[in-house]
Amino acid sequence: MSTSVLVTGGAGYIGSHACAVLAQQGYQPVVLDNLVYGHREAVKWGPLYEGSIADAKLVGEILTKHKIDAVLHFAAYAYVGESVNDPLKYYHNNVAETVSLLTTLVEHKISKFVFSSTCATYGNPEKLPIDEAHPQKPINPYGASKLMVERVLQDLAAIGKMNSVALRYFNAAGACNEFGLGEDHDPETHLIPLVLKSMLPGGSKIKVFGNDYATRDGSCLRDYIHVYDLATAHVKALDSLERSGKAWDVFNLGTGSGHSTFEVIQAASKVVGREIPFDVAPRRAGDPAELVADASKALTKLGWKPERSDLASILSSAWDWHQKRCLAPF
Ligand SMILES: NC(=O)c1ccc[n+]([C@@H]2O[C@H](COP(=O)([O-])OP(=O)(O)OC[C@H]3O[C@@H](n4cnc5c(N)ncnc54)[C@H](O)[C@@H]3O)[C@@H](O)[C@H]2O)c1
After folding, report:
1. How far is the CA of 90 from the centre of ligand 1 (A)?
2. Which pTM was predicted?
3. Which residues are part of the catalytic machinery?
4. Range of 195's domain?
5. Which of 138, 145, 238, 324 has the fewest CB atoms within 10 Å, i.e. the most exposed one?
6. Whose CA is nearest to atom 43 of ligand 1?
7. Calpha distance 38→185 (Å, rounded)
8. With 0-12 CB in 10 A as exposed, 13-18 as middle and 19+ as buried, what is 161?
């Protein structure tokens, strides 16, 4: 019988891809999602329970019914700007609801937990590339909410109640057309889908925020990681929890190389086959010039290797996905 894994937020972008990869590797994903942002149609590899991670009764029933052995915890709100304007929404959903979930898991003696953390826990980089020992000084409530959960997990690990791995993603991007999955946030705030969707019917011209940063072409640099590679890292992290018996660990997930906004637009123009128009707008507050991961720990300790995270593969997979979605929305 395959091992059942609870995937919170499994109807969302990264969680749905993780379900596909879990199923491919012989696990049975069981999704819990309140569908505030997720898509019912993205849950294809196991049951979907519609509800909140803080619903102890529902979570308890799922754990028992499916003999859950481990949890991948993607469920969260992830809009940085919104978190600044409505911090309580973020501390409530991302922290308080996660603490409720953890309470239920501990009661049911579930001791394997993989957490979706973020490079936003580091704040403004003090050195580049950013490794896991870099100081964590988040500059917005979203990043702070994720750092708080990391702390809760470390405290639970210290008393032997829960073994966990936090994966700090850099910029997730791309699609897996073989699974019929891709990025479909509403509202969309991420650069790559905005650039590609600007070339589809109904798309709006993109804005480049700042062309006067101290980078090679003046625009911001980010480390893009294909969502498939993120998904495979989760399965490796689960396996490492089985294998290593370590109570707490943390890994950056990125490629180690950054692409500037102008480079992304230029590469996207090649994929789309047309020049992509854009306007330059003033810098946005809180955007660091450069965010690039040192992901060598994940490479050596998890045995993980990004396979699809070159910019051309990310863009062409995402372009295929957005064209199809434009013709046939969910
Ligand atoms: N997308 C990125 O680039 C990125 C980068 C770093 C970290 N992350 C983290 O990865 C995770 C997944 O991100 P995503 O881009 O797939 O987001 P997403 O919004 O597509 O998926 C999150 C899912 O969680 C669900 N959800 C939210 N709160 C819930 C709750 N209380 N109970 C039940 N379900 C709930 C939503 O309905 C949604 O389906 C998040 O935790 C996010 O903070 C994402």
Report:
1. 12
2. 0.97
3. 142
4. 177-223+256-327
5. 324
6. 78
7. 8
8. middle
